[in-house]
Amino acid sequence: MRIVLRGRPDYQVDVISTEEAEALRSWYVHSSSSEQDAIALAVIRQAKLCDGWIECDCIGGAHKPLLAPQQQERTFTLRRLSPADGDPHTRIDRPNHADDCPFHVDRAFDPAAHDRAFNLRPVPHRETAYVDALPAIPTQLADPDRNPPDPDHERNDRPSRLAIVLWRLMDSAGINILKPLQEGPSQYQLKSQLAALRHAGARMRVTRTWRFGALSTTWPGDYGDKNSRFQRLLRKSRPDWAPNQRRTGFMILFSTSVTQKAIHPAATSAPIEVLSRVRQPLRRDPRHRGPYLVIANADFGDDDDGDLRAVQAYAQPVFNGETLFPVESGFERDLTNLLIWLQTSLFDAAPRLRITIRKPLFAIATPKGLCRPDFVLETVFANHPPVHLVIEAMGMDTEQYRAAKARKSPRMKEIGPTYEIHPADIRPANAQALGEDLQRWVLAHAARRRLRFVNG
Ligand SMILES: [Zn+2]
What are the pLDDT digits (tens) for 377-386? Predict the structure, then answer.
């Protein structure tokens, strides 16, 4: 066996000894000693580190079966790049392993009982001011029987820890709120929004003695600048980290685009390569995804003594380059536009009606359970109590999606009356009718509460 370059299996990167190959096979069939586990782990880590695949030598011929190293948090495993027997999409350059090779079949991984519900989000951690740092350098192999890796893990909507850090910051900085126009909010600006995020970061902690604010930056140039305050402080923090943590710095970067492996910050021309896949919310709406507010964590390499290295990243789509209001798709960006129009038009028509537009980043607890509406309008007429109205973006048209939305619907209604908008509603031909209907709906609900209030 040998390690070859990912995507270019004719190019050899490293060799794998007979002993190492034996360790890999034994681990795969779950008959390895702990010594062999350590050897297998080292090989898989090495393959991952040099961006390689593992080529199996169980068959002859020009094309050999391939295995891709996978890393999920602290756990490494291998994924077969061979089609299953009888797969109609079999490729000539992706042969399966020999019948008697342990890698011939996938392990019978039972998919983890995963809540694939859309809008799955935790409730915010109010009780802690701490931010998760990176765990110590990975030191374990996946146990295929007890701890099956979920191949969808990086693709589904389950938030990464890093995403949660970003949402906490945005929530705390009020970036997910568009204030009523009566408060005369100043024009949104990237500069002041980033400052609000830094301010929020100053209240959060990474270690007992170090604040998030000191170990983070919003300036992409700091990534390559060893003498930046960000890198100097991160170096200085060395003695203050617990053994189960990796020295971790955080970058919050406004970025025009991302790829699976790199971030393209708006302020610099050099992209920042990320060690693992850049994650973002899953929506079947890949067009017009960016711009993004990206959070990345960084360390000083496996030996904690090298150059700064971006390890993980999460890209949150945002409204535009001035307003970092979070959205999850191009469709939600269009709806944000519509809600801003609604806010402006009703400010003119009903100046005493204050409308706040809120994008909940965390689940809201209702008597019927947790839910996370796409948007919540808080309307306050004069000095009456607020009325909450839920706007739901029905962005996808799959049964699973509708079922998930339907399950959440009674919970949404606990928050307030709900208005559903489908992509067809905002087509040019329908947009005006939608806008007028939405105005009527908001006014009717705001007024109904007012009448009830007046009548006692
Ligand atoms: Zn094989």
Answer: 999 988 888 9
Upper half-sphere CA count for residue 329 (Cβ side, 13 Å): 15
How many angstroms does the Cα of residue 366 sit away from the middle of ligand 1?
52
Ligand 1 centroid from CA 113, angstroms: 30
CA of 65 to the centre of ligand 1 (A): 6
Strand partners, 379: 355, 387
**What secondary structure, in 3-state letters, does 27-81 show?**
HHCCCCCHHHHHHHHHHHHHHHHCCEEEECCCCCCCCCCEEEEEEECCEEEEEEC
CA 1 to ligand 1 centroid distance, Å: 9
Read off the pTM: 0.70
Q: How far apart are CA 331 and CA 329, in angstroms?
A: 5
User: Which tokens hold the place of 32?
Assistant: 């390895």
231's tokens: 């890198």
CA distance linking residue 59 with residue 82, whole number of Å: 13
Give me ligand 1 centre to Cα 98, in Å.
6
Torsion of Cα atoms, 258 then 260 then 262 then 268, to 10°: -10
Of 148-157, 180-189, 240-249, 331-340, which gets the smallest average pLDDT? 148-157
The pLDDT score that the predictor gives to residue 139 is 58
